[in-house]
Amino acid sequence: MTSIDAPLTPAAPAAAEARGALDDAEVPAASAAFEAPDLPAPPAELHGPVLAWFDRHARDLPWRHPEAGAWGVMVSEFMLQQTPVVRVLPVYEQWLARWPRPADLAADAPGEAVRAWGRLGYPRRALRLHAAAVAIKERHGGDVPRDHGQLLALPGIGEYTAAAVASFAYGQRHAVLDTNVRRVFARAATGVQYPPNATTAAERRLARALLPADEATASRWAAASMELGALVCTAKNEDCGRCPISGQCAWRLAGKPAHDGPPRRGQTYAGTDRQVRGRLLAVLRESTEPVAQAALDQVWDEPVQRARALDGLVADGLVEPLDDGLYRLPVA
After folding, report:
1. How far apart are CA 199 and CA 26, in angstroms?
2. At what angle do helices 69-80 and 85-98 cross, to 10 degrees?
3. What does the pLDDT average to over 130-138?
4. CB atoms within 10 A of CB 185
5. pLDDT (tens digit per residue) in 309-331
């Protein structure tokens, strides 16, 4: 992905709960540390403690309620990509109140999805969620499909999101690999501090090896291992004293060796095209009428960067240029 429109919170305990996948792709990088592992404990010895911990400590989140349904789960998965729960919650509630079913969103203009997305960041997710809603209405009668292959065929849905919706909404058995889960598995089973920057085949094999055989248990395991990474086995300042599998964790037992893979790149925001894009979109979101070029020119002093950011928004389908130097959020 190229330009981004809001700051990505650095990996830290407060933000570790954010889903790591963005469009189900992460920064490409390789790591020789990840080979097919010898598990430090049989999978069943990991399942029980983690599931029992989840039963006691799982957060009460609206997309975990039965009434959220598959659409509520799907909306949450789009919103949680690279965005902490605390920022998602108010937008999620407003979104579902306005568009309780895919057909409701599909009937509205894509620009309204961008407007409602607010400051969640990565607003192309809003366009992709709108496109998925249109496809669900046209192909599946307005109901989020249960079949993993049909989910994967929807616009904007990749490997992670399809598995997450099938698992969390329909209780199916799939390996659900976001950054939190990958970090838990990297430490507990492989003995390294961090997983590679991009999901590897070895990680997928490990996730399948750790997956409980029973569908219902596998679905709970997916949610529980994700919650453990979000709340306890965080990217920094992990709390091993609260971890239900610290006694079996290969990384802790090895003395917590420091990360020796590719550098973990931080995220900058101030002064970048992302910041300019965010300011331009903020002006367009706040107006129900087309906005003049002159109004957009006021958000950033440097004209070359401002023009580049605006051109990028147009190219991404987030902004629609009109005649006479006017711009608006997309209508079609």
Report:
1. 7
2. 140
3. 98
4. 25
5. 999 999 999 999 999 999 999 99
Reference 41, options 249, 232, 192; nearest CA is 249
In the numeric block, which tokens belong to residue 52?
């029992």
Catalytic residue at 45? no
Residues 6+ apart with CB under 8 A from 137: 102, 103, 106
Enumerate the H helices of the chain as residue ranges: 43-57, 69-80, 85-98, 102-106, 110-117, 124-140, 148-152, 159-170, 179-185, 201-210, 215-231, 250-253, 273-286, 293-297, 303-315
H or E segment to which residue 326 belongs = strand 326-328
Of the listed ranges 90-104, 230-244, 268-282, the least confidently predicted one is 268-282
- For residue 284, CA distances in Å to 115, 270, 308 come to 8, 20, 17
CB burial string 106-126: b at 16+ within 10 A, e below: beeebbbbbbbbbebbbbbbb
Q: What confidence tens digit (pLDDT) does each residue in 47-65 have?
A: 999 999 999 999 999 999 9
- In this structure, what DSSP letter does residue 291 have? E
Q: Give the DSSP letter string of 173-223.
A: ------HHHHHHHIIIII--SS--SS--HHHHHHHHHHS-SSHHHHHHHHH
In the DSSP assignment, the letter for residue 53 is H
Q: Tokens 């990749």 belong to which residue? A: 158
Q: Which residue among the candidates 77, 159, 227, 238 is catalytic per the annotation? A: 77
Mean pLDDT of 172-190: 96
